[in-house]
Amino acid sequence: MAQFSVNRKSHYLSSNRDLHEVVMIADKDGNINSGGGALTNINLARGLIEGYSSINKFGYNENLGNNGFESIWDGSNIYSYPTSPAPCVVTSANGDQNGVVVEIQGLDAGYNLTVESVPVGSSSSTPFIRIFRAIVITPPVGEETNTADINLSINGSIAAKILDGAGQTLMAIYTIPAGKTGFLTKLFCSVDKSSDVAFRLMARPEGGAFNVKGQFGTFGVPMTYEYTVPLVFTEKTDIEVRAESGNTCGAGAIFDIILVDNDG
Question: Fewer CB under 10 Å: which end of the chain, C or N?
Fold first, then answer.
């Protein structure tokens, strides 16, 4: 343990009351990441820092209107979260999508991270309480990606959708997994034309209510906010970006979260 007394310029003694500790981040092989920055971020992305991981969430609402705030996701409404876990049913109104395989990323009944691959027309074996991403991993024969909308439903309600040609969901929506704490470090919002748009970063702790954690206005200009001191979110907290506009437009949002395993 790196402890030192600045006043006495000496190492640890049992009677010391003016100790300072040095805290460092190391990868799984014990190599110290000095000063953060690119080296730390690369090792974080590679999964080399034990107890730490990250998630980059991005979403787009292509039909934001003047009917109040809407979630930034593949739908054009306020996102509705599942209220109880159930198998995820993957469907498409276009029969040409049968045989397409979708990777579902979400949380199981205990809010633990879960990934499962499910063909269109089938259901997952895992009961999901949250879905925050879905990716086409096997496209239709002769195609690059999905050629029609694909819906992922829990208890009869759409929890995620992959729009025609997108190959994955566009959801600025995330829930902190069980046993982890989330630190939101950066938020980016944009609009596809010169239009007045108000963005809201929203969060709801388990069993609580949604609250605004940041509100930002723009007129057709992209907006980036870096949290020098990250926002902290406890396990099972729902996080999303919402927006409203005085005119019909498309709006997108991206945010980055570092996940840290809880002690014990």
Answer: C
Confidence at residue 40, expressed as pLDDT on a 0 to 100 scale = 78
Task: Please name the helix (run of DSSP H) or strand (run of DSSP E) that holds residue 43, with its range, or none.
Answer: helix 37-45
Report yes or no: 22 and 33 within 8 Å, Cβ to Cβ.
no
Q: Are residues 91 and 35 in the same domain?
A: no
| DSSP assigned state of 247 | S
Tell me which residue of 48, 49, 166 sits closest to 102, measured CA to CA.
Answer: 166
* 97: three-class secondary structure by DSSP: helix
Contacts of 130 (CB under 8 A, 6+ apart): 81, 82, 106, 107, 111, 159, 175, 238
The predicted-structure confidence for 97-145, as pLDDT tens digits, reads as follows: 888 999 999 999 999 999 999 999 999 999 999 999 999 999 999 999 9
Structure tokens at 231: 């926002």
pTM, to two decimals: 0.86
Among candidate residues 142, 94, 90, 158, the one with its CA nearest the CA of residue 119: 90
Q: Tell me the CATH number at 254.
A: 2.60.120.1340
Domain boundary among 138, 162, 186: 162
Residue keyed to tokens 């702790």: 205
234 C-beta neighbours (distance < 10 Å), count: 13
CA 135, 137, 143, 148 torsion-angle sign = negative
